[in-house]
Amino acid sequence: MRVLVAPQAFKGSLSPLEAARGIAEGIRAAWPEAEVDLAPVADGGDGTVDALVLATGGRKLRVKTVDPLGRPIEAEIGVLGDGRTAVVEMAQASGLARLRPEERNPLVTTTYGTGLLIRAALDAGFRRIIVGIGGSATNDGGAGMLQALGMGLFDREGRPIPPGGQGLLALDRIDPSGLDPRLAEAEIIVASDVTNPLCGPEGAAAVYGPQKGATPQMVRLLDEALAHFAAVVRRDLGKDVAQVPGAGAAGGLGAGLLLLPNVRIRPGAEVVFEAVGIDTRLARADLVLTGEGAVDRSTAFGKTPARLAERARAYGRPLVILTGRLGPGYEQLYPLGVGAVVPIVPGPVGEAEAMARAFEFLKAAAERTCRLLDLGLKLSGRRPA
């Protein structure tokens, strides 16, 4: 039995590689003779650097930056095996995981740290940069990122606007003349699994603001701020970013990145799939096991497990998703090629305990899944009793 193991991160508990190792241990407990191929994946959010570095035999660089509240931290940027491509994961600097629950406030959180990561990649000599955007704690339209790269965002008094989504309301003028000139020589590939526009009922604030700590009143304020930002961008830079698919990713960071030269947005999962050679590995596999922290109806709309299931189906390969939390509407994944969705938490367990024991639970769930599949194979006569 050849099993392809291709999970995402289980946010807050396991990296993609850790999740893959847990699943692999469970498989081998049930099928000692199995050939297990580890291919951790990501969608531009948490774990993107790890997945791409592992897949390409690359390396990591540790750099200084700031968190969503401007506090000094260290983070990692990846270098692909080709030696010429850097990977910036915005979640490493501006991600929700950087904050305690009581610190979450998209009115004040900033993407400045993400801009510093891009600048660090430029300083290291890279001119091809993949920027993974996802898992953000921010809703500032990428304003902080732009400021870190030298773009001037000023209020009526000519002062730099303050950090955070609320700061956009003070924006009066954008001056691109100070933008880092090295960006003109660079190619930036934005990896994102989100196609939301910047503003409106499907925009960054309305859809993702609440999970970042926004109240309904804050959501309205943030959407107004992003709309104002888009209007000033249209007037001063001649670009219309309000309704571009993907502009609303990572609290509008997608829109901010579109203001840089030589930028294109691509589905994050596809960027990673290409790097790991997923098609070749699917063709060799008999079974695919993937995993994600939470699965619900939204997973069917372009999320990594759904994209992987569609590819597996094209090769006639059965796929099972292991998940920490099973939400409403997960059944919508079945028509896409998902054979089963298996929750890993065994019974009534608190969230803190579930996250602390995620590796153990994932390993056990993978073993149970393989033993059930083994039983099915025996019943069908494909495997000796």
Question: Would you mind describing this structure in some detail?
Answer:
- A 6-stranded mixed sheet has the order 3-4-5-6-9-10, with helices on both faces.
- α1 (16-30) crosses α13 (358-379).
- 54% of the residues are buried.
- It is built from 13 helices and 13 strands.
- α1 (16-30) links the parallel β1 and β2 (35-38).
- The chain is elongated, with a radius of gyration of 21 Å.
- The protein starts with a strand and ends in a 6-residue tail after the last helix.
- It is of the alpha/beta class and 385 residues long.
- It has helices at residues 16-30, 48-56, 90-94, 112-123, 143-148, 204-208, 216-237, 249-257, 268-276, 278-284, 304-314, 351-356, 358-379; strands spanning 2-5, 35-38, 59-66, 72-79, 85-89, 128-132, 152-154, 173-175, 187-192, 263-267, 287-295, 319-326, 338-343.
- The longest helix has 22 residues, at 216-237.
- Helix content is 36%, strand content 19%.
- The model has no long low-confidence stretch (mean pLDDT 95).
- It has 2 domains: 2-39 and 277-379, Rossmann fold; 48-269, Glycerate kinase, domain 2 (Alpha-Beta Complex), CATH 3.90.1510.
